[in-house]
Design a protein that fits this description.
It is built from 6 helices and 6 strands. The N and C termini lie far apart (88 Å). The strands form 2 sheets. Strands 3-4-6-5 form a 4-stranded antiparallel sheet, covered by helices on one side. Strands 1-2 form a two-stranded antiparallel ribbon. The protein is globular. It is of the alpha+beta class.
Protein backbone atom coordinates (compact mmCIF):
# COMPACT_ATOMS: atom_id res chain seq x y z
CA UNK A 1 0.00 0.00 0.00
CA UNK A 2 2.84 2.37 0.88
CA UNK A 3 4.43 1.59 -2.46
CA UNK A 4 1.25 2.67 -4.30
CA UNK A 5 1.17 5.97 -2.39
CA UNK A 6 4.81 6.53 -3.27
CA UNK A 7 4.11 6.05 -6.97
CA UNK A 8 1.16 8.43 -6.80
CA UNK A 9 3.28 11.10 -5.11
CA UNK A 10 5.91 10.73 -7.81
CA UNK A 11 3.29 11.07 -10.53
CA UNK A 12 1.72 14.30 -9.20
CA UNK A 13 4.49 16.70 -10.40
CA UNK A 14 4.45 15.05 -13.83
CA UNK A 15 0.66 15.36 -14.14
CA UNK A 16 0.70 19.00 -13.05
CA UNK A 17 3.42 19.81 -15.57
CA UNK A 18 1.50 17.99 -18.30
CA UNK A 19 -1.70 19.95 -17.55
CA UNK A 20 0.22 23.21 -17.64
CA UNK A 21 1.73 22.27 -21.01
CA UNK A 22 -1.70 21.41 -22.44
CA UNK A 23 -3.12 24.71 -21.21
CA UNK A 24 -0.32 26.62 -22.94
CA UNK A 25 -0.92 24.73 -26.17
CA UNK A 26 -4.64 25.48 -26.05
CA UNK A 27 -4.12 29.19 -25.46
CA UNK A 28 -1.28 29.66 -28.00
CA UNK A 29 -2.05 31.54 -31.19
CA UNK A 30 -2.27 28.79 -33.86
CA UNK A 31 -1.03 31.15 -36.59
CA UNK A 32 2.06 32.17 -34.63
CA UNK A 33 2.69 28.57 -33.66
CA UNK A 34 2.61 27.61 -37.33
CA UNK A 35 4.98 30.41 -38.33
CA UNK A 36 7.57 30.42 -35.56
CA UNK A 37 10.15 31.83 -37.95
CA UNK A 38 8.54 35.27 -37.70
CA UNK A 39 8.76 37.73 -34.86
CA UNK A 40 5.97 40.25 -34.40
CA UNK A 41 6.75 43.44 -32.51
CA UNK A 42 3.92 45.45 -30.96
CA UNK A 43 2.95 48.70 -32.65
CA UNK A 44 4.38 51.86 -31.16
CA UNK A 45 1.81 53.90 -29.27
CA UNK A 46 3.78 57.15 -29.24
CA UNK A 47 6.79 58.83 -30.84
CA UNK A 48 9.88 58.40 -28.70
CA UNK A 49 12.19 61.36 -28.11
CA UNK A 50 15.27 59.55 -29.43
CA UNK A 51 13.71 58.60 -32.77
CA UNK A 52 15.16 60.20 -35.89
CA UNK A 53 13.18 63.09 -37.35
CA UNK A 54 14.44 62.25 -40.84
CA UNK A 55 12.04 60.55 -43.25
CA UNK A 56 14.41 57.59 -43.61
CA UNK A 57 13.80 53.87 -43.14
CA UNK A 58 16.85 51.73 -42.35
CA UNK A 59 16.55 48.01 -43.19
CA UNK A 60 19.27 45.49 -42.36
CA UNK A 61 19.80 42.67 -44.89
CA UNK A 62 22.29 39.81 -44.71
CA UNK A 63 23.67 40.47 -48.20
CA UNK A 64 23.63 43.13 -50.89
CA UNK A 65 21.08 42.85 -53.68
CA UNK A 66 22.90 42.17 -56.93
CA UNK A 67 20.34 44.11 -59.00
CA UNK A 68 17.66 46.61 -58.04
CA UNK A 69 15.89 47.53 -61.26
CA UNK A 70 12.20 46.99 -60.45
CA UNK A 71 11.42 45.15 -63.70
CA UNK A 72 14.49 42.89 -63.78
CA UNK A 73 15.20 41.77 -60.22
CA UNK A 74 15.53 38.06 -59.48
CA UNK A 75 16.66 37.67 -55.86
CA UNK A 76 14.53 37.81 -52.73
CA UNK A 77 16.66 40.46 -51.00
CA UNK A 78 16.03 42.79 -53.95
CA UNK A 79 12.32 42.06 -53.75
CA UNK A 80 12.25 43.08 -50.09
CA UNK A 81 13.90 46.43 -50.87
CA UNK A 82 11.71 47.09 -53.91
CA UNK A 83 8.58 46.35 -51.88
CA UNK A 84 9.44 49.46 -49.87
CA UNK A 85 10.21 51.71 -52.85
CA UNK A 86 7.84 50.39 -55.54
CA UNK A 87 4.81 48.74 -53.92
CA UNK A 88 2.74 46.18 -55.81
CA UNK A 89 -1.04 46.06 -56.13
CA UNK A 90 -1.25 43.35 -53.48
CA UNK A 91 1.14 41.98 -50.90
CA UNK A 92 1.55 38.63 -49.21
CA UNK A 93 0.93 38.49 -45.46
CA UNK A 94 3.85 36.29 -44.37
CA UNK A 95 2.27 35.42 -41.02
CA UNK A 96 -1.33 34.62 -41.95
CA UNK A 97 -0.37 33.41 -45.44
CA UNK A 98 -2.95 35.43 -47.34
CA UNK A 99 -3.12 38.28 -49.83
CA UNK A 100 -3.66 41.84 -48.61
CA UNK A 101 -4.26 45.06 -50.58
CA UNK A 102 -1.27 47.36 -50.98
CA UNK A 103 -1.60 49.95 -53.78
CA UNK A 104 -5.08 48.58 -54.46
CA UNK A 105 -7.97 49.50 -52.19
CA UNK A 106 -9.07 45.89 -51.90
CA UNK A 107 -8.74 42.49 -53.48
CA UNK A 108 -10.06 42.54 -57.06
CA UNK A 109 -13.64 42.21 -58.16
CA UNK A 110 -13.76 38.89 -60.01
CA UNK A 111 -15.99 38.52 -63.09
CA UNK A 112 -18.28 35.52 -63.48
CA UNK A 113 -15.96 33.99 -66.07
CA UNK A 114 -13.06 34.21 -63.59
CA UNK A 115 -10.90 35.76 -66.29
CA UNK A 116 -11.40 39.47 -65.55
CA UNK A 117 -10.17 41.12 -62.37
CA UNK A 118 -11.00 44.74 -61.57
CA UNK A 119 -8.85 46.79 -59.21
CA UNK A 120 -9.17 50.30 -57.81
CA UNK A 121 -6.03 52.10 -56.68
CA UNK A 122 -5.81 53.95 -53.40
CA UNK A 123 -6.87 57.59 -53.69
CA UNK A 124 -3.86 58.64 -51.60
CA UNK A 125 -1.33 56.69 -53.69
CA UNK A 126 1.07 59.22 -55.24
CA UNK A 127 4.62 59.26 -56.57
CA UNK A 128 7.37 61.21 -54.84
CA UNK A 129 6.75 64.17 -57.16
CA UNK A 130 3.15 64.35 -55.94
CA UNK A 131 1.55 62.98 -59.11
CA UNK A 132 -1.08 60.26 -58.57
CA UNK A 133 -0.49 56.58 -59.23
CA UNK A 134 -2.96 55.71 -62.00
CA UNK A 135 -3.99 52.83 -64.21
CA UNK A 136 -1.60 54.25 -66.83
CA UNK A 137 1.30 53.30 -64.55
CA UNK A 138 -0.09 49.79 -64.11
CA UNK A 139 -0.48 49.31 -67.88
CA UNK A 140 3.05 50.63 -68.43
CA UNK A 141 4.47 48.27 -65.79
CA UNK A 142 3.06 45.18 -67.48
CA UNK A 143 4.01 46.38 -70.95
CA UNK A 144 7.59 46.69 -69.74
CA UNK A 145 7.49 43.20 -68.25
CA UNK A 146 6.04 41.62 -71.40
CA UNK A 147 8.39 43.48 -73.75
CA UNK A 148 10.85 41.15 -75.55
CA UNK A 149 13.58 43.72 -74.85
CA UNK A 150 13.22 43.35 -71.09
CA UNK A 151 15.55 40.73 -69.62
CA UNK A 152 13.22 39.25 -67.03
CA UNK A 153 12.50 35.62 -67.88
CA UNK A 154 11.10 34.96 -64.41
CA UNK A 155 8.47 37.70 -64.62
CA UNK A 156 7.58 36.94 -68.22
CA UNK A 157 6.59 33.41 -67.26
CA UNK A 158 4.44 34.82 -64.45
CA UNK A 159 2.46 37.24 -66.61
CA UNK A 160 2.31 35.30 -69.88
CA UNK A 161 -1.37 34.52 -69.23
CA UNK A 162 -2.19 38.24 -69.00
CA UNK A 163 -4.00 39.26 -72.19
CA UNK A 164 -4.52 42.97 -71.63
CA UNK A 165 -5.39 45.67 -69.10
CA UNK A 166 -8.41 47.88 -69.72
CA UNK A 167 -8.38 51.27 -67.94
CA UNK A 168 -11.73 52.64 -66.77
CA UNK A 169 -12.34 55.77 -68.89
CA UNK A 170 -14.40 57.29 -66.07
CA UNK A 171 -11.87 56.65 -63.30
CA UNK A 172 -8.07 56.86 -63.79
CA UNK A 173 -7.62 54.83 -60.61
CA UNK A 174 -9.63 51.85 -61.83
CA UNK A 175 -8.75 49.14 -64.37
CA UNK A 176 -9.50 45.54 -65.34
CA UNK A 177 -6.90 42.84 -65.94
CA UNK A 178 -8.04 40.32 -68.57
CA UNK A 179 -6.55 36.83 -68.69
CA UNK A 180 -6.21 34.54 -71.70
CA UNK A 181 -7.63 31.60 -69.74
CA UNK A 182 -8.52 30.66 -66.18
CA UNK A 183 -5.41 30.71 -64.06
CA UNK A 184 -5.03 29.78 -60.39
CA UNK A 185 -2.37 32.49 -59.90
CA UNK A 186 -4.32 35.25 -61.69
CA UNK A 187 -4.59 37.29 -58.50
CA UNK A 188 -1.49 36.33 -56.54
CA UNK A 189 0.79 37.02 -59.52
CA UNK A 190 0.44 40.79 -59.03
CA UNK A 191 2.41 40.57 -55.78
CA UNK A 192 5.54 39.99 -57.93
CA UNK A 193 5.29 43.24 -59.88
CA UNK A 194 6.47 46.55 -58.39
CA UNK A 195 4.44 49.29 -60.10
CA UNK A 196 6.51 51.73 -62.17
CA UNK A 197 5.90 55.41 -62.85
CA UNK A 198 5.25 55.86 -66.56
CA UNK A 199 6.17 59.55 -66.39
CA UNK A 200 9.55 58.77 -64.82
CA UNK A 201 10.64 55.72 -66.83
CA UNK A 202 9.02 56.65 -70.14
CA UNK A 203 8.49 60.44 -70.23
CA UNK A 204 7.97 60.40 -74.01
CA UNK A 205 5.40 57.58 -73.69
CA UNK A 206 7.16 55.38 -76.24
CA UNK A 207 5.32 52.25 -75.04
CA UNK A 208 2.05 54.10 -75.54
CA UNK A 209 2.43 53.22 -79.24
CA UNK A 210 2.26 49.50 -78.48
CA UNK A 211 -0.52 47.25 -77.25
CA UNK A 212 -0.06 44.57 -74.63
CA UNK A 213 -1.26 41.89 -77.02
Amino acid sequence: MKRIYTYLLLLIPFLLQRCSSVDRQNTADPILEKNKGYVIFPDAIKIMSDWSKENILVVHTLSDASYLHPSNYTFQNARVILSLTHPALLTLDQVEIKLNPCLAKALPEVAADEMQFTYTLLDEAVWDDGSPVTSEDVVFTYKVSKSPLTDNALHKSTCKNLKTIIPDPANPKRFTMVMKRKYVQAVSMVTDFPILSRNFFDPENVLGNFTME
